[in-house]
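step 3/5: co-fold with zinc ion
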Amino acid sequence: MDRIHLQTNRRRELVDITAFVNQAVGASGVEEGLCLVYVPHTTAGVLINEGADPAVGEDILNALGALLPAITFRHREGNADAHVLASLLNSSVVVPIAESALQLGTWQAIFFVELDGPRRREVRVTCLRA
Ligand code: ZN
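step 4/5: write tokens
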């Protein structure tokens, strides 16, 4: 397993981690298999979506924020919104590996989703040989 450490800069933010995950795939020596990208946090997530136009990521964050209902949250830490949004996302994604590279679609990128930043964060990458 490999660990990617990152520092987020905003309360809600998408961070493109595709290059770091590809590095981890290369370091693993796995030529054919699966890559598990796992986020061990309760106020963050991971998703795969378009990486070419940054406006897509902004739209995703804005849409997620608009999903929050006007209710009174009971969690006293003050970040209940981040917990709720993180529960709508995934804690992991799996991507095929072939020829020692992630087999993402042309427009796909892997994003760490910060929902309660800025914070120091970690992503765990496990590559399995097929
Ligand atoms: Zn909390």
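step 5/5: annotate
The pocket of zinc ion is lined by residues 75, 77, 79, 83 (CB under 6 Å).
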